[in-house]
Write a structure and sequence with these properties.
The chain has 300 residues and is α/β, with parallel strands linked by helices. α5 runs parallel beside α6 and α6 packs across α8. The protein has 9 helices and 16 strands.
């Protein structure tokens, strides 16, 4: 039985990574488990300069998940390269760096800086607001998504994963746009946009008013979108959105994901991602699958 997966020419030991923003750069979680048990570690978003993030409160609990409006707070690329890459390199896992920005130039600056660093893949977060276009996210306009993919590919020294926003009319159209732009893989879904109101304080639960909805509540939507994208493009798909068990992860794989990413569940159980990798192996053994590829996308 073979748990290895090949994502855009990069071989992972198993098909499990963690969702950007839920795992930091792994240091807190390393106290609870060996990060080498994961196929890859996906870092928190990194920008060309430090970002302070949004004002508090910026996290709220909801039925079946959570909402956040952290605002991609991060220390910037210089400190990341100095501190976080050497830390992660101690472990037998692949390193995926999530990249964020407010303009095409911001993204390209980070991608160019990382091209010479010892990391394995780049995940481009195109749910960021495009300051040049009045704040609409890069990932909500097919032309903008294709253009930014083309731009970062010129500077990338590693395979590029484009992380798709679910806050669109047609997710397959967005996937085809980044494929046309030269993406090596796609990951989805980023959180859905939602709102929560505190009825006793009669104000918004988040200072930002809206936030990203994640956790088990979004899983059926995520599975549907992964299925649509896997059947619309020829790129490897990394599926995420509400995965909290091995059974959840297998559902994404059967829908067409070549690998999966665990997010909100990390906050509940810091070893859950490794447990899910073990659980996938047990499922494969019980159902007679010899490889992850053998079961990827078999539900049509």
């Amino acid at each position: 039985m073979d748990l290895r997966v090949n994502i855009a020419g990069v071989e992972w030991k198993n098909p499990v990574t963690v969702a950007s923003g839920t795992f930091g750069s792994g240091e807190e979680y390393a106290e609870f488990m060996d990060l080498g048990r994961l196929g890859a570690v996906t870092t928190k978003g990194v920008a060309n300069v430090p970002w302070e993030g949004n004002p508090t409160p910026r996290v709220a609990e909801i039925h079946g998940g959570m909402m956040n409006a952290i605002g991609l707070q991060n220390p910037g690329i210089d400190l990341f390269c100095k501190r976080d890459i050497p830390f992660l390199r101690q472990y037998d896992t692949k390193i995926i760096v999530n990249v964020c920005g407010r303009s095409v130039e911001d993204y390209c600056e980070v991608v160019e800086r990382l091209s010479g660093e010892d990391v394995d893949m780049l995940e481009i977060n195109i749910s960021c607001p495009n300051v040049r276009e009045g704040g609409i996210a890069f990932g909500q306009d097919p032309k903008a998504a294709e253009d930014i993919t083309k731009a970062v590919k010129k500077y990338a020294g590693q395979p590029v994963i484009m992380k798709l926003s679910p806050n669109v009319t047609d997710i397959a159209e967005m996937a085809r746009a980044v494929e046309a732009g030269g993406a090596d893989a796609v990951s989805l879904i980023n959180p859905l946009t939602g709102m929560k109101i505190d009825i006793y304080r009669r104000t918004f639960a988040l200072a930002n008013k809206t936030g990203g909805v994640s956790g088990p509540a979004v899983k059926p939507i995520a599975v549907r979108m992964v299925y649509q994208v896997a059947n619309a493009v020829k790129l490897p798909v990394i599926g995420m959105g509400g995965i909290a068990s091995a059974e959840d992860a297998v559902e994404f794989i059967l829908a067409g994901a070549s690998a999966v990413s665990v997010g909100t569940a990390n906050f509940i159980n810091p070893t859950i991602a490794a447990e899910i990798a073990d659980g996938i192996a047990k499922y494969m053994k019980s159902c007679g699958f010899e490889s992850v590829a053998e079961m990827t996308g078999i539900v049509k």
